[in-house]
Specification:
By secondary structure, the protein is α+β, with helices and mostly antiparallel strands. The chain is about 30% helix and about 45% strand. It has a six-stranded mixed beta sheet. Strand 3 and strand 4 form a beta hairpin. The longest helix is centred in the middle third of the chain and has 15 residues. About 20% of the residues are buried.
C-alpha cells in the first residue's frame, strides 16, 4: 500500500500534466526548496520559496512544452517519515521545434503538513538537450 506522501506526489504530477500551475503551487510549502540536480545553466539551483518554485515550474513546463505529461512509475518509502522516493517519466512536445521530449526521473520529496518542503530531481540531461536542439 502506498503512503499518503506517495499519493501527494502522484497528485502533484497530475496537476502538472493538466497544466494547472496554481494547483501545483498549492501543494508547495512556503519554504519549499526545489533542486534540479543536472539543471542547465539558465536555471540557477536550488530554487527556494513557493512563488519562485511555482513560477519556475510554470515557466519551464508551460513555456517550453505543449503537451506535457508526467506520471509516477513507482514510489519507495524512505526510512525517514514524511519522505518518499519516486521514479517518474515524462512525454511531451517541445514548443519551439516540435521535437518529442521523453525522459525518466528519480525524485526525492519531503513533506510537512501535506505540503512539499523539498524536491530534488535527477533526470537525463542529454535527453533534454537533444529534444531542445534544432
Amino acid at each position: 500500500m502506498e503512503s499518503h506522501e506517495a499519493d501527494l506526489v502522484r497528485e502533484l504530477f497530475a496537476r502538472l500534466s493538466r497544466r494547472d500551475f496554481d494547483a501545483v503551487e498549492a501543494l508547495l510549502a512556503d519554504d519549499v526548496e526545489f533542486d534540479l540536480a543536472y539543471a542547465p545553466e539558465f536555471l540557477p539551483m536550488p530554487t527556494r520559496g513557493r512563488q519562485a518554485v511555482g513560477d519556475l515550474v510554470g515557466n519551464v513546463i508551460g513555456g517550453m512544452f505543449e503537451p506535457f505529461r508526467i506520471e509516477v512509475v513507482a514510489t519507495y518509502p524512505a526510512a525517514e517519515p514524511g519522505v518518499v522516493i519516486a521514479e517518474y517519466r515524462s512525454d511531451g512536445t517541445v514548443k519551439h521545434n516540435g521535437n518529442r521530449y521523453e525522459n525518466r526521473y528519480v525524485g526525492i520529496f519531503r513533506f510537512r503538513d501535506d505540503k512539499v518542503t523539498f524536491w530534488r530531481e535527477y533526470h537525463n540531461p542529454e535527453a533534454a538537450t537533444k529534444a531542445m536542439s534544432g
